[in-house]
Protein 1
Amino acid sequence: MNYLIKEAFQILQRPKTFAKLPNIFLVVFSYFICKLTKKNFVLGFPFMLMLEPTNICNLRCPLCITGSDQMTRPDGVMELTNFRKLMDEVGDYLIHLTLWSQGEPFVNRNFTEMIRIAKAKGIKTMTSTNGHFLIENAEKIVNSGLDVLIVAMDGASQQTYEKYRINGNFEKVKNGMKSISEAKKRLNSKTPEIELQFIVMKHNEHETDAIRSLAYECGAQVISIKTAQVYTEKQAAEFLPTHEKYRRYELDANGKIKTKLKEINFCRWVLLCPVINWDGTVSPCCFDKNAEYGLGNVFSNGGLKKIWKSEPYANFRQQIFTNRKDIPICSNCSEGLEVEVFEKENVGPDLNHPHPQEQNKYKSFKSAHV
Ligand code: SF4
């Protein structure tokens, strides 16, 4: 709760936020009406957006559809002119822009310019990267105004790291984070906040303490320990850790994996945060990795505002409120799980024994997020 209050306070301090408040009120109001009635009722336009700068990636991670060649959409990067068009249409409503979905965002050469455009609209920006393009872009990233930089680092040594991050270079990622920290100091900037993200898997679960030390060494402010998403029993056997706390799946009576789902016929994301893929296609959330749900294209079907209130979107929401388990992506996602998908901690010099005066500073907080 402290985290949410802090976040709300920061949002109010940002330029242009007050003009966005009436729309936020409408969206939050209709959200609670939907939750109560389980009927599609949408007022206002999204104040949060997830956008995919590209679906191309330099690594070959086996549980990622890009890395494992399961991507059926064409490869590409979002054009800067299209990004501008989208910001002109909905930028004045947005308070939060998540800049990733599939693919490595920094493969798009216009990526830092996109962040700069969003920041000029008073939008909080956040991205997630495999960390291989940070060294050469460090000053550009800091100067873009990016607020949060999540760096995927699933191992405390090259040997563990490359078991999942195939083609990845551990030292390069480590030095990339250090470059950002140094650039922040040089440019006297508090942002971006660096968050080291560690997906717990069978081969790295013994390294959760080592990764905390590494995060501190690289200048990260936050570490997030995340559970893995798998699709098959074979992947579950190969990748899921033994520690129950870090598994979002259990086995049913037939030995099949199923998510530890708590709430079934609801979803926040279809009411709050659409996903725009690099070519403008709209997905209901980042679990629709191949854009299979036909919600439209913001660059060729009249823009996001029209699509947000369209019949296909309304029908999709209604199906979730009525019978979510019949939608294949919705039965293997993190929304409504009994377990936390993320466990986050602020990074301190000694996480197990912080100085008494610093205990509050390093107190952990948890956040359920896609
Ligand atoms: S996959 Fe999950 S997050 Fe996406 S629409 Fe379905 S319930 Fe919501």
Protein 2
Amino acid sequence: MSPEQPPASVDLPATHTAPVVITGATSGLGLATARAMAKQGIPLILAVRNMAKGQEVAAALLRSGVRVAVRRLDLANLATVKSFTDGLIEDGVIPRAIICNAGVQTFDRLQRSADQFELTMATNVLGHVALLDPLLSHMAPGSRVITLGSETHRGGLRAFGFPGALLDLQTGVHRHGLRGRRVLGRSWYPGREF
Ligand SMILES: NC(=O)c1ccc[n+]([C@@H]2O[C@H](COP(=O)([O-])OP(=O)(O)OC[C@H]3O[C@@H](n4cnc5c(N)ncnc54)[C@H](OP(=O)(O)O)[C@@H]3O)[C@@H](O)[C@H]2O)c1
């Protein structure tokens, strides 16, 4: 679809009751984001690979009275990504924002995803693309996609033959996916905002 074409059809309006999906909400920045949003009363879907950890985080967040659901999403396993997106669409749960936060960096030894892609590429890029792709056309105008990247590539780091700009690619791919839609995209490198 070219940027000039009308945006994809919108099935449900974004309302203040629609949830925000956060990938990797079980630790670090994802957890901090979930806590900050829960404090503001924003309904959340914690998209996590470890359900026990996710339930533990949700139990703590629920104490603030906010609506929190935990759904399984292993970005390094494309079948679970499809189950996650199918589940949301079937349940009529259309997020008002998706925060693509989960990420790994595997520089010490080559690791592969369930689908045999290099693990950093699979988790940070392919998994998130597979997550966004089926959901974007359902999201209402004004919905948001927020991507966390990294400045790592600036040091010229190379991981297993992929250019160090891997995480920039993540950002670029997401921007491309947003073209022609009325969903707003923001990319954020911790410590720097674009
Ligand atoms: N912290 C920094 O200074 C910094 C700097 C630059 C960029 N970033 C970027 O910011 C984001 C968050 O960083 P962070 O430091 O908060 O990372 P973190 O503490 O290591 O947390 C990463 C999160 O991603 C989840 N995750 C990993 N693999 C996954 C998979 N296959 N499927 C689903 N979830 C998965 C982890 O789940 P588990 O709990 O199950 O392990 C965890 O919740 C990352 O994208 C990172 O590249 C961070």
